[in-house]
Amino acid sequence: MEMEDHIKSEFSKRFGSEGTLYASAGRINLIGEHTDYNGGFVFPGAIDKVIMADIKPNGTDKVRVYSIDIDDYVEFGLKETDVPEQQWAKYIFGVCREIIKRGGKVEGFDAVFAGNVPLGAGLSSSAALESVFAFALNDLFNENSIDKFELARIGQSTEHNYCGVKCGIMDQFASVFGKKDHLMRLDCRSMEFEYFPFHPEGHRLVLVDSAVKHELVGSPYNRRRESCERVAAKLGHQTLRDATMEELDSIKSEITAEDYMRARYVIGEKQRVLDVCDALVKGDYETVGKRMYETHEGLSKDYEVSCEELDFLNDIAKECGVTGSRIMGGGFGGCTINLVKDDLYDNFVKTATEKFEAKYGHAPKIYDVIISDGAHKC
Ligand code: GLA
Q: N or C: the chain end with fewer CB closer than 10 Å?
């Protein structure tokens, strides 16, 4: 059964009526990793993998939600103390609370949801979940008076205040603002952004999922952020966006080697995003790919958010002549994103699958990327 029909029939079975269907997307990021919380640039796009939710106000002060994929049902109230125990439900509770804290309205509702954004693959399934509920509750209770940036911030604050991840804005931004066939360059300091048409002639974007569980909750993600903030403060800047490599070198002996490496990666990555955007406009995919490999190197050696499996996949990409390849998202597992020439695609996928399986005992998952729309009513 199609996901949409499955959700609708489950909703009517459980709640005896019909809701309104909304969807929001996972995301890829071509380049610009761990730059968002440093006030830098990111270059994401929404993808054709979504979370869909059927929702209807129920006239009470209780939220009743069923997750088809987890096969779990939760009821919670809307007061700050009503926080549910299940991790997945905290995302929804957090979104409700963040809307209420901003003076918005949320009353009781019933919901059933499901999705095909792979969990723990670094494709922002949690941002898709936050965004679909933020978008829906804005429509159902607030006459769409909350602007789209605020919807993204509601998702981000949910992560900060209810899920323990001090993430940047990229994932929620991409999930809310995504547009078919376009990537978006977002300046995370000014929050200005631009859509870039994305048709990499002669190339395909493919994700290779190591299936190493990427889990940012309780991960060293927050510690990476703290390193960056320490260095920025030491330099008298609000964020590393304003720092140069020369400045960083001038304080090298006063900071830890680890903080130095983290900041060196972030400062380098800032320029790489701008280079990639320029190269893309000119159709210069060689430069795009070169920068992607450089990002991988930085994320692996300086930022230390890679793992053996992702480095192995990156090496295979190089051996197969793939134009660009790197870890995508927060790291600590998940996928590599690969820009592959059409005529090398089959060989790359076959080689990566066989070699990875031979070494780790399980095949990686392969996802072709289709850049799609973000949050919407279906
Ligand atoms: C996670 C976070 C984002 C961003 C990326 C790394 O996906 O949620 O805010 O920091 O990691 O670029």
A: N
Among 27, 33, 34, say which to mutate for ligand 1: greatest number of ligand atoms within 8 Å of CB. Answer: 34
C-alpha distance from residue 258 to each of 249, 255, 267, 351 (Å): 13, 8, 14, 35
Nearest atom within ligand 1 for CA of residue 33: 12
Query: pLDDT digit string (tens) for 114-140?
Result: 999 988 888 999 999 999 999 999 999
Q: What's the domain range around 332?
A: 203-369
In testing the pocket of ligand 1, which one of 27, 31, 36 has its CB within 8 Å of the most ligand atoms? 36
Query: What residue ranges line ligand 1, CB within 6 angstroms?
Result: 33-34, 36-37, 124, 167-168, 170-171, 329-330
213 has a pLDDT exceeding 80: no
Reported as type and span, the H/E element at residue 365 is strand 365-368
Q: Which of 138, 162, 197 is the last residue of a domain?
A: 197
Q: What is the pLDDT of residue 121?
A: 86
Q: Which atom of ligand 1 is nearest to the CA of 159?
A: 8
The answer to whether residues 209 and 259 belong to one domain is: yes
For the ranges 175-184, 211-220, 248-257, the lowest mean pLDDT is seen at 211-220
144: left (phi over 0), alpha (psi -120 to 50) or beta: left
Residues counted in the chain: 378
